[in-house]
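Hi L., both proteins are below.
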Amino acid sequence: MKSKRYKNLLKIEKDLSSKPLKDLLTKIKKNCTTKFDESIDLNLQINNKQKKGEVNIRTIVNMPSGTGKKIKVAVLCEDGKKAEAEKVGADMVGGDDLIEKIKGGELNFEKLICTPKMMIGLSKLGKILGPKGLMPNPKLGTVTDNIEEAVKNAKAGQVEIKNDKDGNIGLSLGKKSFSDDKILSNYNAIIDALEKEKGNSTFKGEMIKSVYITSTMGISYKLKLDKHF
C-alpha cells in the first residue's frame, strides 16, 4: 500500500518523461521528504537473453565519490599478513579461527577478502557465502595478496555490478546529501564499467534496455542515457 506521503509526491509530479540524470537530480532530491538521508538508487535492465544463451555481468567499479555507507570488511589471511590487514582498517581479521566463525554462522561483515593460500580452507564454505554474495573472487579483487589495496578499495566505495536472472542490476549512487557532481561522477563510473563489459562480452544489439532512478522513498524516473550501447 502506498503511503499518503508517496501519493502526494505523485500528485505534485506530473512529468515522468525520460530525461538525462543531470536534469532529474533536483527533482529527485526534492522528493526526499523523510527525516533520514535517503539513498539515490539506480536500477538497470540489461538485454542478457541472447541467442547463444544468457550473458551475465559480474564486475566491480570504484565509486569516485564513495557510497556514503560504512562497509565492514573481514580479511582471511596467514599470520604474517594479519598486522597489515589491521593497520589498513579491516574490521575482522583471522585465519582458521575466522573460517570456524563463518562455519558457525558469524557473518558480521559486508565484504570478505582472502589471500590465495587461505582459499583452500574457505572453499568448503561456498554454500554459506555464495548465496549472500560474500564468496571471495579473483575477478572481483577479493582474492589477493595485496591486502592493503583490497581493504582500501572496499572501504572507499568499491561496489559489485551483478545482474539477476531477469537482467536487473540495482546500485546506489550515493546519498541525498551528496552534491550533484558527486552523484554524477559515480553514475559515469558505472556507465563506463558497463560499456567496458559490453566490449569484453558477446552482447548482440543494445546492452541496456532501460534505466530508472529513484530515492529510497521517492518516485521512480526513467533515465535517458547519454550513451547507447
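That was the first. Here is the second:
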Amino acid sequence: MKKYLAELVGTFILVLFGCGTAVVAGDKVGIVGIAFAFGFGLIAAAYGIGPISGCHINPAVSLGVWTAGRMSIKDMFGYWIGQFLGAILAAWVLSAIIGGIAGGYSIAASGLAQDGWGPGYQGGFDLKSAILFEFFATLIFVLVILGSTQKSAPAGFAGLAIGITLVAIHIFGIHITGVSVNPARSLGPALFVGGKALDQVWLFLLIPSIAGIAAGLLFRLKALEADQRP
C-alpha cells in the first residue's frame, strides 16, 4: 500500500504543478514555462517518492514497466489506482484554487488544462496529428524511463533525465494536444471540464497505453536492454 500511496502523491504533484501553471500562469510563462513546470514537477516527485515506488506516476509507464517484465500485474493495477486517484484529486484541488479568482472562473468555458485536438483547441491540429504525436512522444518518454532505470544505467540520474525529456516533449507538443503521454494526467482535468474534453479523453487513455506497451516490448525482447541477464 505504501507504493500505491506514493504513486498517488507523485501523480498529484505532477498534475497540480503542471496543469496549475497552465491554468494560473500560462499566459505569463508561455509554453516553455508550462513545459518546465511539468518537468520540474516530475523531477520533484522522482526524488521524493522514487525510492518507494520508482515514481511511475503515469499508467502508460507502469504498463511499459510491466510489459518489460519489471513488475507484477498486481502492482501495476495498484499503481494505476493510485495514479488516477492522484490526478483526480489534483484536478479537484486546482479547481478549488482557481475558483477563488476575482470575478469567478468558469471551468466549462476556460478549461482546466485538459488535453484535446481539433478546431478551437491550441493549434487546431487534426486527429491524425494528435494520434501520431501522442504515440511517438509516449514511446520516446517510456524508452527513456526504461533505459535510464535499467541496472547498467548511471545511478541517481534517472529522475533528471526523465524530467528533461518531459520538458522537451511539452515544448514540442503543447500546441498539438496540450500533451498527455499520461492517461491519468488527461483523465483528471477532463472529468471536471466535461463536454468535449471528456468526449476526446479516449485518445489520451488509449494511444499512450499502446505506446507504453510498444516501449516495454523493445526491452522485453532485449532490443534495447543493456543488462546482462543469466
